[in-house]
Design brief:
alpha+beta; 149 residues; Pnp Oxidase, Chain A
């Protein structure tokens, strides 16, 4: 079995961009749908937080991992639940991972919305890609459908 794909953020993203987005989101200013994801750490049990883009598609809400199997993905899988924060507002959710064969249109819509920010992590595949191209990259990008408990 091959290792899950993970693209580490660069210095600028980690130390400037993510921190700025998280700070604005904590103040209640959503940057293109940004939220702060809080999920219980799989080993420590302590809350872990990271800025994410909340995608609403066809009435459902999703978290897409453009960088692959990140720490938040590894924590959310066993936890199955978490919180999304925007300013003082906190919303609890349960999460179910989307099967690879069901990701095509979700990925297309995600790329239409955020390709300017995350397009580099999709191996040259964009919103106008064929279904076959999107199916090819689907296993590299975990997606979770969120519901309110």
């Amino acid at each position: 079995m091959t290792e899950p794909r993970y693209v580490q953020p660069g210095w600028f993203t980690r130390n400037v961009f993510n921190r700025a987005v998280a700070r604005l989101t904590r103040l209640g200013i959503s940057v293109y749908g940004s939220r702060v994801l809080v999920v219980r750490g799989r080993s420590s049990g302590l809350p872990r937080s990271v800025p994410v883009n909340l995608l609403t598609y066809e009435g459902d809400r999703y978290l897409v991992a453009p960088r692959g199997t990140t720490q938040w993905v590894r924590n959310l899988r066993p936890a199955g639940e978490g919180e999304l924060r925007l300013g003082r507002r906190t919303e609890s959710f349960t999460a179910a991972e989307v099967a690879d064969e069901d990701k095509t249109e979700i990925l297309r819509f995600y790329l239409k919305r955020w390709a300017w920010e995350v397009g580099a992590f999709f191996d040259g595949v964009g919103a106008s890609a064929t279904d076959d191209e999107l199916r090819r990259i689907a296993p590299d990008h975990p997606i979770f459908r969120l519901t309110r408990p």
